[in-house]
């Protein structure tokens, strides 16, 4: 016998002897076969298990095989059906094909013929499932981007990532907002054996509590108002790939317990569903919270924390990665305006800033400067005022200057930035050059205006 892939099959046949023969032959060929003798039993099996192919007799004691086909069609199940009958007519064949039957065979049929049809139908079923995953990947713009760093701590983290990625350990990424947690998650995916499968991401904090369960596990038709058809969840879309749960600490306790079960058993129920759905995913999660502390306060389940925390990767904030500020700034500059340069004073200003928004804030700042700067170089005065003034403001507050002293100190700082050029200084301050002259006083040596 040729080497074929195992297929999950449902056999709906009222002739018990024939049903046993079919199931035994299918199992001998490596398939998983479940038997049902009536329409009612077949429908119940469809609710309880996930099949790829159904082999359905046309004539059944309590109805027709067409009823099984109609159920598969209405529930939008990602499976194919083959009609098996001794009563094939043109009209029944046409009706079966309209309802999505893959093909039909007439009794008595040879097992070799059935085997060929089963393999072809199973391949079509798998393509349908992969299409669901592909649609999710395309909607999320699955782009594997590299991590730019020259920081020793980040290099050590990436070395750990390279050792962990080839395993199937769950990974928990901790770091402030904007530090690049999703980039690290994509790195785990890219370097893992699942790298050619789906990478599916969701920000758990951005989805309302009452919708998150449906997003993760999907829902059945009619599960709630507006559920007009079955919708696969992200666990199904990420099957055999990587599922990334960003802001995992925001998940409500009611969903935490269902997530824990899905990770432990690799099975879950869609919202409104009664049959378990299997999915094999590697989980990568991220948070800006201290989840260990959250378990002590009861905000996060301790058993789920240990299930997520196979390996923890801690991302340092950008303010602790001084060597990376200039490197990242030039990286973003090359991406958005490669013809522009960053002046030495602008770079110094960036390195002195505390970056509360981390790498994401730096990226947006460079994009803004590229748009607004008219010259070939981005100067310090092209940067936002809060970035330029942060260090001066902190120093002024710490030394307890009066308002007049603070104003004078600020003017001196801006004048120094412009190398004593009063015209540029006045424009940067938004005042008339004469006003600046009066504030500085006549005794100060002047540069040309």
Notes on the protein architecture:
Strand 13 (267-268) and strand 14 (277-278) form a beta hairpin. With 449 residues, the protein is an alpha/beta fold. It is built from 19 helices and 18 strands. It starts with 7 loop residues before the first strand and ends in a 9-residue tail after the last helix. Helix 13 (322-336) crosses helix 15 (358-372) and helix 18 (422-429) packs across helix 19 (433-440). It has a 5-stranded parallel sheet with strand order 2-1-3-6-7, with helices on both faces. The chain folds into 4 domains: 8-129, Rossmann fold (3-Layer(aba) Sandwich); 152-314, P-loop containing nucleotide triphosphate hydrolases (Rossmann fold, 3-Layer(aba) Sandwich), CATH 3.40.50; 320-389, Helicase, Ruva Protein, domain 3, CATH 1.10.8.60; 401-449, Orthogonal Bundle (Arc Repressor Mutant, subunit A), CATH 1.10.10. Residues 137-144 have low confidence and may be disordered. The protein has helices at residues 16-28, 39-48, 65-74, 90-98, 111-139, 152-164, 181-190, 209-217, 234-237, 253-265, 291-296, 302-308, 322-336, 344-352, 358-372, 385-399, 403-417, 422-429, 433-440, and strands spanning 8-12, 32-36, 53-57, 59-60, 63-64, 80-85, 103-106, 171-174, 199-203, 218-219, 231-232, 242-246, 267-268, 277-278, 282-287, 311-314, 341-342, 377-378. The longest helix is centred in the first third of the chain and has 29 residues, at 111-139. 49% of the residues lie in helices and 14% in strands.
